[in-house]
Amino acid sequence: MTAKEKLEVIVRALDMKRGENIQVLEISDLTILADYFVIVNGTSNTHVKTLADEAEFKLSEKGVEPLRTEGYQSASWIILDYGDIVVHVFMKDARSLYQLENLWADGTAVDITSYLTKE
C-alpha cells in the first residue's frame, strides 16, 4: 500500500468513529521520523482507544501492521507508528498541551476533505 492509500484508510476510520479535528501534516522534508503525521483527538479515554483501535483494525484488514504502538495504558495520547505514517490520537487537553501542529508548523497541511463524511 502507498502512503496516500494508508492515509485514506486511517482518516476514514477516524472520521467514521467521530474523531475530532483530524489533521494530516506532510513532514517528509523536515525529518526522517515519518512522511506524515495524522493528529486527532477524542472526547474520553474510551474514545481515544476506540479511535486508535479502529485505525489499527482497518489497516490490519489491508495487511498493514504498526511497527510500534505506545500509550494504550494511559489513553491520553496513543501513537501508532507505521514507519511512513505516525498516528497521534489525543485527549483534547493533551493535544492542547503538546501542540504538535505548532511544533511541526513547517510541515505541509494535507487536504483530507475528500476522505471525510459529509454531514
From TrEMBL:
Keywords: Cytoplasm, Repressor, Translation regulation. GO terms for cellular component: cytoplasm. GO terms for molecular function: ribosomal large subunit binding. InterPro entries: Iojap/RsfS/C7orf30 (IPR004394), NT_sf (IPR043519). One of its GO terms (biological process) is negative regulation of ribosome biogenesis. It is found in: Cytoplasm. Its main location: cytoplasm. Belongs to the Iojap/RsfS family. Functions as a ribosomal silencing factor. Interacts with ribosomal protein uL14 (rplN), blocking formation of intersubunit bridge B8. Prevents association of the 30S and 50S ribosomal subunits and the formation of functional ribosomes, thus repressing translation. Interacts with ribosomal protein uL14 (rplN). This is Ribosomal silencing factor RsfS. It comes from Ruminococcus champanellensis (strain DSM 18848 / JCM 17042 / KCTC 15320 / 18P13). The lineage of its organism: Bacteria, Bacillati, Bacillota, Clostridia, Eubacteriales.
